[in-house]
Design a protein that fits this description.
mainly beta; seven-stranded mixed sheet; four-stranded antiparallel sheet
Length: 122
């Protein structure tokens, strides 16, 4: 199983970026995004369930980020709008099959992408 993330880059505060993560080998029930800023622990950002209609976000990105998935392409997306300097981090996509109560736990994900750097300048 491989997850390949893309779409990171440098953007000014208030700008937008779209991340993509293509999975190969199998389909996961939950596809999520986590991020890790320098000197900080990896944190949950968003997750989308298999149907694509159930999505969950961290409070820090709710209303600004949108997660979606295309099951035909086995790809998950993260549309990030109104970016802030505190969004600067390496973003990782992840695949897993945890129950709903555990979908925010990084340890519950079986496969991880290589990470893509998002830098937001002020």
């Amino acid at each position: 199983v491989q997850l390949q993330a893309s779409g990171g880059g440098l953007v000014q505060e208030g700008g937008s970026l779209r991340l993509a993560c293509a999975a190969s080998g199998r389909t996961f029930g939950n596809m999520g995004w986590f991020r890790q800023a320098p000197g900080k622990e990896r944190e949950f950002v968003a997750v989308v369930r298999r149907s694509g209609s159930s999505t969950y976000y961290s409070e820090s990105v709710k209303g600004r980020f949108t997660i979606s998935r295309d099951n035909a392409k086995n790809t998950v997306y993260l549309q990030m709008n109104n970016l802030k300097p505190e969004d600067t981090a390496v973003y990782y996509c992840a695949g897993g099959d945890a129950i709903l109560s555990a979908i925010r736990e990084a340890s519950m994900y079986r496969a991880w992408g290589q990470g893509t750097l998002v830098t937001v300048s002020s």
